[in-house]
Amino acid sequence: MGQTASQANQPPPSSPQKSGSGCPVPHDSPAASKPAACPVDHGSSSKAPALAECPVGHDGTALNPLNQIPNLSQTPAPHQTSSLPVDRTSSSIPRDHAGNWDYPSPQQFYNALVRKGWETPEEHVEMMVQIHNFLNEKAWEEVLKWEKMAHGDDVRLARFKGRPGELSPKARFYLFAGWLLPSRFNTEPPFDRHDWVVQRPKTGEEVRYVIDYYSAPPEPDGSPVFSLDVRPALDSVGSIGMRMKVATEEAWRSFREKENGTE
């Protein structure tokens, strides 16, 4: 629980990690051998931010205040040369009693990229959308693991916000550890961060989760791998208790495995 590696091998709803077929990333291209990273090429535009971020703006700019989803147009962008699908995929993430959250269509996704000034090949947009959706599905799976331990699986994603460029305290700690021990810890910062607020309908309680998105070394066949560090924020007594319980269990499990290995 917490940090988990996920291979971007198919669009959501996702199958067990590192299984299945139909990876949205073309492995016959030279880029397939590079380490996994945010699917958006942030080096292609002088307007791109220093740190990678989700192209769908969750920063409060032009957002629907009821659901924190940007009001993105389905109309082709100026100078767009090819048509992009306008169908939106429904996620497995409950929004309310009426249904689940919907992911942006490839056209909406492309419009978000254009709005942020990123030069993006139109033929890659559908693959980017699949990876974006895949990572969100994996993040929700990790949230459910925490919730089942503490409460149950009757939870909803009430709202969320992207916070690219804002390092969480844990990410800062790991960067410092990587500076001290680069052979043991990752020296790269997360390429994105989201804060998700989960609601427990039975009690009305809301719990904030922090999600750090990291690149991980690719598979031998070039398939990209992403590592998600999902955990409840340390802003409530209940969340602190959950984190302590999991940390204790993981430490005890590691101790027993080492002990059994020496016998």
What does this structure look like?
By secondary structure, the protein is an alpha+beta fold. It has two domains: 15-232, no CATH class; 238-263. Helices cover 28% and strands 21% of the residues. It contains four helices and nine strands. The chain has helices at residues 106-115, 125-150, 169-180, 237-262; strands spanning 3-7, 63-64, 69-70, 90-96, 99-102, 156-162, 192-200, 205-216, 225-232. The protein has a five-stranded antiparallel β-sheet with strand order 1-9-8-7-6. A two-stranded antiparallel sheet has the order 2-3. Strands 4-5 form a two-stranded antiparallel sheet. It is globular and about 60 Å long. The two termini are 27 Å apart.
Strand fraction equals: 15-25%
Poorly predicted spans: 9-37, 39-53
Structural category is alpha+beta
How many beta-strand elements? 9
Shape from CA axes?
A: globular
Biggest sheet strand order reads 1-9-8-7-6
How does the major sheet shape up? 5 strands, antiparallel
Write the layout of secondary structure elements.
Blueprint: E1 3-7, E2 63-64, E3 69-70, E4 90-96, E5 99-102, H1 106-115, H2 125-150, E6 156-162, H3 169-180, E7 192-200, E8 205-216, E9 225-232, H4 237-262
Antiparallel strand pairs: 1-9, 2-3, 4-5, 6-7, 7-8, 8-9
Helix pairs in contact: 1-2
